[in-house]
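Side project, low priority. Logging it here so it doesn't get lost.
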Amino acid sequence: MRDFLHTNYIGRFAPSPSGPLHQGSLVAALGSWLDARHHQGQWLVRIEDLDTPRNQPGAEEQILQCLRVHGLEWNGEVVRQSDRLLLYQTALDQLSQKDLVFPCGCSRKEIEEQGGIYPGTCRGGIPEGKVGRAMRIRCPSITLQFDDRGFGQEFEQIAQTTGDFVLKRADGVYSYQLAVVVDDIQQGMTQIVRGADLLSSTARQLFLYSALEKTPPAYLHLPLVLNSNGQKLSKQNLTPGLNHQTPIQNIQLALQTLQMALSAPVEEAPSSSLQDLLAWAIGHWNIPLHNPQNSVWGADQREFRHDPNHCPSDTPRSAS
């Protein structure tokens, strides 16, 4: 087996233990794994278990076993966010010392009534009748620009799209935005490969990197997988977990979603063994580490329809 530790590439897969992995999860896991392995880097696994009401007993072991069954081995020990609360509080304290954080007493319903964009109600102090429980960060009116390795140049004004966003919720749970940035900094991530549903979070996370005076990683967002109703495959949509008895077929379907990232059609991939299939995919991964000029996915390729009855090895490649 090739030595995957020759470069300073560090990537990760970070699922939440709210249920088993499904086909959409596999696309994200496989895409991040292939990118790391193709570039001879490390691939870490982190369990994002902060949102305890959503965690399901046994889900973490289900997820890890699913990765093993599909040949997606990882480097090092598995990390859990629930063991890292002190790191998040330390970062929150650092931002507070810079006067970037303020308490907020607004409810989620009130924010939704404002179109989902925080209007700055508590920026200058808690209004009478409210109690400051959540913690938000002040967002300046600037345009954040970044180059995504898959979708090209992206722009966002977070002051207009979300407003001052939450770093610690009213129930005391640290927000995803804060925790993921702190984790990626602490673990030394150089490349983030994940689904396009998180593309809209990237500007907020880049802002946090800047506020914490840290260098951000590069980003590569992968197409989402949709069901027959046009919904993203998710646990909330009752998407079934992966069948552990058909790992080769599952990987083939995931590679079909990632076809634009491969230098050869999936139909040409060997199907005699899982190891051979994954080795072929590593060798044909075709997204460079730095791709600021050209996008891999077109605007019409952010989503991919999932047909569980479709097997790429049985279908002729389209001429388009």
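Brief comment: The longest helix spans residues 23-38.
Revisit when time allows.
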